Amino acid sequence: MNSQNVEAGPYSADTHHQVDAHVLRQVRRSASATRTITRTMPTMDQQADAVVIGAGVIGSSITLELARRGLNVLCLDKLPAAGYGSTSSSSAVVRFTYSTESSVAMSWEGLHYWRDWANHVSVGPGSGIDHDALVEYSTVPMVMFHHSDEPEPPYLEHFKRLGIPHEVVSPGALPSWLESVDTRRFGPAARLDDADDPFWGEPDDSFDIAIVCADAGFVSDPQLAAQNLATAAMAAGASFAFKTKVVEINSDSSSNRITGLVVEDESGERRRIQTPVVVNAAGPHSSGVNAMAGAVEDMARTSRALRREVYIGPAPEGYDDQGAFMCGDLDIGVYYRPEKGDNILVSSTEPECDELEWVDPDDYDTVLSEDEFQLNMLRASRRFPNLAIPHSKRGLVSLYDASDDWTPIYDRSMIDGFYMACGSSGNQFKNAAIAGHIMAELITAVEGGHDHDAEALVITGRYTGMQIDMSTFSRLRPVDPDGANTVLG
Ligand SMILES: Cc1cc2nc3c(=O)[nH]c(=O)nc-3n(C[C@H](O)[C@H](O)[C@H](O)COP(=O)(O)OP(=O)(O)OC[C@H]3O[C@@H](n4cnc5c(N)ncnc54)[C@H](O)[C@@H]3O)c2cc1C
Fold first, then answer.
1. Model confidence pLDDT, tens digit, residues 234-271
2. In CA terms, which of 84, 199, 202, 324 is 20 to 30 Å from 161?
3. Contact yes or no for 452/388 (Cβ under 8 A)
4. Which ligand 1 atom is nearest residue 400's CA?
5. Residue 356 per-residue DSSP state
């Protein structure tokens, strides 16, 4: 695929990037052309330039960016408020350790939105819409353990090329807050009953390198982040309809163009919405929504709902304001970060020994497993010898929308006007704001006539000027044999 550069205009809360008037006219013309096409049981027709399915952190962000480009956008969600879906369970870790250069660039650009959050979601004086509260970004160093006898992780090459700040430290130079940690190599990650790789094996060598990103961190409240974006979108003129489920997506087969959709409210009443543009941001339900649109035939990459658990326990001694760090600890099979209330948050990195639980997103076990809680806390205790394992389990159960290569799909589809922001694979919360921007750039470019499948867009980040090559997120991409194959993406 070739690439084409698209320069994003300079951005501030007061001068939002405006879409080309020609593109806006084009979208509106398509909208009026669809107005004559109706099919199923409408009670009342509504019209929009674009409809976003899903008011999670990704859908709310896309809605904001489209509204700021002057489109009449409607965002629909079957739940009662923004961010009530899988977003609400996010660990909200912000880090830059991805296997592809575009993903590293995107996550670094994404950090700058969190740092500039108040400005990004500014609703402006006199808008009549206020934020009750804004999310906060807490900086906590991200550490990746490494050994000099292993090949360099791919993200290190990307860090060097892109200039992402990082430090490569060896044992003699380890920061004091890493000294209480057991840096031995326990891997590969094992289960308690594993006969081949005994869980309690005592390794005789240690990692001799730690790669540290001091700018990493996490966001205080992922659900509130989605609500901040939704509030900003409303201030920019977007509409939201909650408790409203999309049950049908219509297109005109002769023109291969989206014409609208049918929604059902809580009482079971259905109505039709006419629109030439539909964006699938339905999180773990996204593959069902793609199927509903009939847009799956040409997809080389797909996604499915994966059941995930996140565990909370009391922080080990020293894992505090001075001593806490975050880690994607593939060696023991968990990631961890500090959690408010002097706790540690622990979750799996999908080691090979663990079976993945692919589920129906409308019917899965929402009770935390006692055994998995114990196993994953014990895994963390290998790194933190003074971690106390609580007797009673605490945590949550949620779903990833996991793609088959753990990389999201931010793309158009085989149907004109139907777009996908899905397959977020447990690693796209950090990118929500920049995902909104690249999707809005994509939609306006494609609706303006650009052939993205033939010539993938390259979007320039507003804050960092970094190039994000969207072919990385194409539904048509081949599998990268050097990809992460874990939640690290
Ligand atoms: C346990 C967990 C931990 C994670 N940790 C991290 C992390 O540390 N860092 C990171 O960057 N990312 C992380 N992620 C990933 C990140 O949280 C997700 O990528 C992101 O929140 C997904 O947002 P979304 O808007 O795509 O989906 P969702 O928040 O799930 O939103 C989709 C919405 O679509 C709605 N919907 C679905 N179908 C329909 C329909 N037919 N009609 C109307 N509405 C519909 C749903 O109700 C839902 O509200 C984590 C995810 C999970 C689950």
1. 999 999 999 999 999 999 999 999 999 999 999 999 99
2. 324
3. no
4. 53
5. P
